[in-house]
Amino acid sequence: MISSSHGARVTFCVVAEHTVSCDVEAVAARSDREWSGLLGTHEALAGLVCREPGEDAGTAGTRVWAAVECLRKAGLPADAPLTLTTAGTAPWMVFAVGAAHIATLVTAVRDVPDPVVFAVLTEGRI
Predict the structure, then answer these.
(1) 47 with 36: CB under 8 angstroms?
(2) Residue 83: CB partners within 8 Å, gap ≥ 6?
(3) Sign of CA dihedral 29, 105, 69, 45
(4) Does the pTM of the predicted model rise above 0.90?
């Protein structure tokens, strides 16, 4: 299986023999209303990401949004119940849904002014 994403001036691609998907997003500052509309049932998860490792709302929201995009690309329901499996290990954070895990990384990309979130969904071990 192959998945690709284009954002933040880069193209990100992953390949695996099993279910895999990816997303790349520049961190975006949005209003609470905008995040609520984008994240839907995952809005509370973004709040948890803000509280636990102490990320700002834009970074936490973008991280969760990238995870939701991975769900969609893998053919999973966008409202599948994501859980946070690691916190406080920034810049990495891992979410889970069933047998799938979504590893997310917040980092800098040359010539991109805002931080960038990379997310990869895979089934089984990460």
Answers:
(1) no
(2) 45, 95, 96, 97
(3) negative
(4) yes
